[in-house]
From TrEMBL:
InterPro entries xref list: Ras-like_GEF, Ras-like_Gua-exchang_fac_N, Ras_G-nucl-exch_fac_CS, Ras_GEF_dom_sf, RASGEF_cat_dom, RASGEF_cat_dom_sf
Positions of region (Disordered): 1-38
Gene coding for it: RASGEF1C
Protein's name according to its UniProt entry: Ras-GEF domain-containing member 1C
Domain N-terminal Ras-GEF residues, every copy: 38-168
Keyword set, alphabetical order: Guanine-nucleotide releasing factor
Ranges where the Ras-GEF domain occurs: 211-460
Keyword DNA-binding: no
Family matches, as Pfam families: RasGEF, RasGEF_N
Domain of life: Eukaryota
Biased segments, Acidic residues type: 17-26
PROSITE patterns associated with the record: RASGEF, RASGEF_CAT, RASGEF_NTER
CDD domains: RasGEF, REM
Amino acid sequence: MFTTPSGFNPHLACAEPGEEEEEEAPQESPGPAACLTDGPPFTSASLETLIQNLVPTADYYPEKAYVFTLLLSARLFIPPSELLSRVCELCIKQQQLDQSPLDTVKVRKFGPKILQLLTEWTETFPSDFRDEKMVGHLKDIIRRIAPCDEAYWKTLNQMLQKLNQRLALMSQGEESFFKVSLNASSISDKLVAFKTKPPPIQKDILSICNDPYTLAQQLTHVELEHLSHIGPEEFVQAFVQKDPLDGTQQPSFSEQKKTSNLEAYVRWFNRLCYLVATEICMPAKKKQRATVIEFFIDVARECFNIGNFNSLMAIISGMNMTPVSRLKKTWSKTKTAKYFILEHQMDPTGNFYNYRTALRGAAHRSQTANSNREKIVIPFFSLLIKDIYFLNEGCANRLPNGHVNFEKFMELARQVGEFMTWKQVECPFEEDRAILLYLHTAPIFSEDGLYLASYESESPENQVEKDRWKALRSNVLAKT
C-alpha cells in the first residue's frame, strides 16, 4: 500500500563542510542530505533531518507514506508531544510566525498544508492527542496563522470535534472489551470438571447456532470489532527499548496502557481456542463430540472463504490441543478430509508459506473488490506480531553513524499500513446478539479442566495419562 518515500524537502539546504553532518561517525555511503534534490529513495538520516522533512512549507508537502512512516516510528526516539513541538518550532521559524505583521500571502499558502499535516496526524494517531500538550501545540500553531484567515479557526474546531468524538468512541470500546474480558474470565474459573461428568451445565454452541456460515460471520464481527480499536502506534510501542545512544528508557506499554487493545485481541484468540476445545470435550457421547468437531471444521472452512484467517487459526489450534487430539475414538467417527485441507493451508512449514500465499490472494481480492464482503482480510494476528517482532530484533533502530535506520521503519510502516487498511473494512454481516454474547461469555475449561474432561470421555491410554488423571481428580475433590 505504501510506496518508498523519496520526497525529502527540496527547500532544505545540504549540510556545509564542517557542520554537524561532517562530524558524525564515518559514513559508508553518502548521507541523505546529499540527494535531497535528486529524489531517489533514502535509507537513513539523522532524526533532525527526518523531522525537518516532515515540516511543510508554502510550496512543499511531504509524501503521505513519509508522514505515516515518521509519525509511526519517531516515537521510538522521542514522545509524540516533543515531535509536534519540534515541528511547530520549525514552522514558526521558517514562516516567521513570531513576527508582526505576518506575510499574509505566504502564510495563506502555508496554512492549508500545516492543517493537512495536523489532520492526518489526528485521524491516524488520535490517541497521541490524549496528551494535553499535543492539543496545546495544535492550538498554538493555528492561533499564529489565524490572523491571516479566520477560516483556520473553523477548521481547527472541526478537527478537534472529530478528534474528541473519536477518542470518546475509543474509550467506550476499550472499557467494553475490558468488562467482557473480566466477565468471561470469572465465569470460566467457576467451570470445573467433576469426578463423573455431570449433565451439561451450560448451553452448547450447537444450541445457539447450528449453521457454520452464520457462526463464521459472527466470528468475523468479533474480529473486526477488536481490530477497529487497535491503533498503529501499538505495534511500535510494544517493542520500545533503550536508545543505545543515550541510554534513556522510553515509557513502557504497561505504564502508558498503550497495548491494551492489542493484548485484548490476543486474549480473544486464546479464548476462542479454549472455547472450541471445551465444546468438543464437553459432550458425554463420542457421536456428539464428532458432530461438534465436524461443525467447527465447517466453520473454519467458512472463515477461510470469508478471509478471516485469525478465527480459522484459532479453531484449528483448539482442535489441535492435546485434550482434543487424543480423542482417537471420537476422531474415528469424524469426516476429516476437509480438516486436513484446512490444516494444510495453515501449516507452519516454510514460515507459513501456504497461509502467506492465501493471504496474498485475499489481499488482492480486497484491492479489486466492489463490496465489503470481498474486502475482508483478517490476518493471523500472532504471526503478524511475530513478523514485526523479528523485523525489530533483526534490524537496529540506528546505524553506526548515528543515523535513524529509516529503511527498517519503511518496512514496518508497510506492514502496519496494510493492516490499517484491512481493519477499516465495515463488517457486512448482520449481528446476532445471542451468538455474540455466547462467544464472549460462555464458560470455558482451564487447561486442567480440558484434560480431565478428555480423560473422562476416553480413558487414559498409558501410565503418564493415568497418573495425570488421578492427580487432576484429586485436585477437584480437594477443592469441592
